[in-house]
Amino acid sequence: MDRSRYFDHAATTPVRPEVLETMRAAWDEEFGNPGSLHRVGLGAKDTLERARAVIAGAIGARDREIIFTATGTEANNIALFGAARRQARLGRGKHILVSAVEHPSVMTAARQLERQGFELTLLPVDRRGRVNPDDVRRLVRRDTVLISLMHANNVVGTVQPVEDVGALAREHEVLFHVDAVQSFGKIPVDVRRIGADLLSVDAHKMGGPKGAAALYVRKGVRLDPLLFGGGQERGLRPGTPNVPAIAGFARAVETAGADAFGERMRTLRNRLVEGLRRRIPECTVFGHPNEILPTVIAIGLPRVEGQMLMLELDRRGFSTSSGSACSASEAEPSYILLAMGYSRDEALESLRISLGWTNTVEAVDELVDALSEIAVEVGRAKCTARPLPVPPQRH
């Protein structure tokens, strides 16, 4: 496969070569259990703790505030269930605030807490997918124990005002969880500046391996565990850690910070959006125009179903993602776009294009060409055949 034509990095990313090299060395040399006291085990423990320091440093945390998990979903679940249940057990309340556009790993966990007796309030978003901090101030209550708000949306890329919401959470003495799985490695993530008590990150969204993620737990915050066992990771994630994957996670963090990744992605994103607007004037670009990830572009072609568009692009060698979900009978529109105020038909027309380290200027231009050709072929959108400008040569 031509990896430069892989435009679904928000779902998962190919593993960077440097990460694979690091993981191979860990499998070969650090295969011990980090809980063992012999030199092989201690070597694995040293690798584990070095990785913890790298990830902590990248988000402005202390080493001991990093808890390794297997997935971002697991990190989010530990945060929500662990915080809400402990606060309720201490008699502080059973009300939680969650935005209406959260990832399913947060939304479904919040719904499960609701079924267990908690009261859930969904924070509304505007047409651009952004929460208004004034709504948080209006909806927070004396019995609110947790606010969960993603840093950046996984479907439309909108970046949330997490610093403002963090300040409100501190003012009302409410725990604040941030799902930064989609933003980490693409834009700055600083737990102190955000004011997060809990924050989730993941390796496989940034050129790292699947099977390694982490939850930041601010010093002094106590969570009820979901799993029980040997007491690893401060008792919040017991079990033998996946040391090679965690070592790969740390290497991905170092690499992402070293190559001006966000700036390069922003250049590609701008080129893609400008090309689509030039070639397909009726194309809709969802999300916020400024507060946006440099890696995610959600678009809609009038009266062209997103799933059809995705499948046709796949036939031409491009990997993208439809904004709708498959069911046994028909496509279901994205609940995120519905929460943003778009109609069912508009939501069904959405297509997500997400950039990553494998993409090139040439592949972006080819994708714009392919989308323009498809729009002409289906006869639904008005297109103009103005070519993209030739990029300057860099040596």
What is the compact description of this entry?
The protein has 395 residues and is α/β, with parallel strands linked by helices. The chain has helices at 17-29, 39-59, 72-89, 104-115, 133-139, 162-171, 191-194, 243-258, 261-279, 306-315, 335-339, 344-348, 361-378; strands spanning 66-69, 95-99, 119-123, 144-150, 175-179, 198-202, 213-217, 284-286, 296-300, 321-322, 325-326, 331-332, 350-354. The chain starts with 16 loop residues before the first helix and ends in a 17-residue tail after the last helix.
Topology:
Elements lengths: L16 H13 L9 H21 L6 E4 L2 H18 L5 E5 L4 H12 L3 E5 L9 H7 L4 E7 L11 H10 L3 E5 L11 H4 L3 E5 L10 E5 L25 H16 L2 H19 L4 E3 L9 E5 L5 H10 L5 E2 L2 E2 L4 E2 L2 H5 L4 H5 L1 E5 L6 H18 L17
Parallel strand pairs: 2-3, 2-4, 4-5, 5-6
Antiparallel strand pairs: 1-7, 6-7, 8-9, 9-13, 10-13, 11-12
CATH class of the largest domain: Alpha Beta
Q: Average pLDDT value?
A: 91
Number of strands: 13
Note the run of SSEs as H and E.
HHEHEHEHEHEHEEHHEEHEEEHHEH
Count of domain modules: 2
Q: Low-confidence runs (pLDDT<50, min 5 residues)? A: 324-329, 380-395
Sheet with the most strands?
A: 7 strands, mixed
- DSSP helical segment count: 13
Strand content: 5-15%
Tell me the radius of gyration.
22 Å
CATH topology of the largest domain: Aspartate Aminotransferase, domain 2
**What proportion of the residues is helical, as a percent range?**
40-55%
Separation of termini?
A: 27 Å
Pairing-aware structural class of the strands and helices? Answer: alpha/beta
Q: How would you write the strand order of the largest sheet?
A: 1-7-6-5-4-2-3
- Described by the principal axes of the CA atoms, the overall outline is globular
Name of the CATH homologous superfamily of the largest domain: Type I PLP-dependent aspartate aminotransferase-like (Major domain)
CATH-level-2 architecture of the largest domain: 3-Layer(aba) Sandwich
